[in-house]
Specification:
Low-confidence stretches: 1-31
CATH topology of the domain at 162-256: Serine Threonine Protein Phosphatase 5, Tetratricopeptide repeat
Number of helices: 14
CATH superfamily of the domain at 162-256: Ankyrin repeat-containing domain
CATH class of the domain at 162-256: Mainly Alpha
Number of strands: 0
Radius of gyration: 22 Å
Helix content: 55-70%
Oligomer: single chain
Shape: elongated
Largest sheet: none
Mean pLDDT: 83
Order of helices and strands: HHHHHHHHHHHHHH
Distance between the termini: 76 Å
CATH architecture of the domain at 162-256: Alpha Horseshoe
Length: 256
């Protein structure tokens, strides 16, 4: 009974986000998959901490998630939806994550824009120093990256290992994202504190991303920087037999 009372009390505390009677529904993957993914672990953990039965916790969480997600139409508009998103954002943040981070990771640009509109901090890092911009860049979500950079996201923020969004995008060869970040003054010469010491240029050279290398060089990337092994981007290109790429780096070095 105590478990039911706790659940009922909590439902009453968020009752204003519930959809009209008869309209509660399981969030659809196309519309609310992110809301579902974000709130399920948060509420399950919360109910476990309050001593709820482990088998009942997912059911209780499911009901609350449906109420939160049910308040939002597909286009994420309206006062009820705004309140729901704010509530969910607060709950997710208490869990050690953040709704902007989850949205960026999933490429949910619609939710990122809504969070920006609601003045939620979309720059705040989670544990490990990862920002929404970093995860969006690493996952290749160009539209989401654009929304974040336009909103003033710090393009030169570093995580706990000293890595930047530009390093991730360059290493994976996401040219559109690289250009976006460079266009917003991302520094291509930041050296991470990790075990590699790979700058954005070295990462791109190691993985053979020719167009990314050209973009980085055009924006002042220093080809003379060495990594923790004492290798430059050129050394990596030569070691892997990337002839055209190596020549581009030689030409860049010769011009300086």
């Amino acid at each position: 009974m105590r478990q039911v009372a706790l659940f009922a009390a909590f439902v009453c505390s968020v009752g204003w986000v519930a959809p009209p009677p008869g309209r509660a529904q399981t969030p659809s993957p196309s519309r609310d998959s992110l809301l579902w993914a974000a709130c399920m672990p948060v509420y399950i953990d919360e109910f476990k901490q309050q001593g709820s039965d482990e088998q009942k916790a997912p059911v209780m969480a499911s009901m609350i998630c449906q109420m939160v997600a049910g308040a939002c139409p597909p286009e994420l508009r309206g006062e009820r939806c705004d309140k729901s998103i704010r509530l969910l954002s607060e709950k997710v943040e208490k869990s050690g994550l953040s709704l902007p981070y989850l949205a960026a990771s999933a490429g949910r640009t619609d939710l990122i824009k809504k969070l920006i509109e609601l003045k939620v901090n979309v720059n705040k890092p989670i544990k490990g120093g990862w920002t929404p911009l970093m995860i969006a860049a690493a996952e290749g979500h160009a539209e989401t990256v654009s929304a974040l950079t336009e909103a003033g996201a710090d393009v030169n923020a570093t995580n706990a290992l000293g890595r930047t969004a530009l390093m991730f995008a360059s290493s994976y060869g996401f040219l559109a994202i690289v250009n976006d970040l460079l266009g917003h003054r991302a520094d291509p010469n930041i050296v991470p504190r990790d075990s590699t010491g790979w700058t954005a240029l070295i990462g791109a050279a190691h993985n053979g991303h020719m167009e990314v290398i050209r973009a980085l060089l055009d924006h002042g990337a220093d080809a003379s920087i060495k990594d923790k092994q004492g290798k430059t981007a050129l050394a990596w290109a030569e070691a892997q037999g990337k002839v055209e790429l190596a020549q581009a780096l030689r030409d860049s070095t010769a011009k300086k």
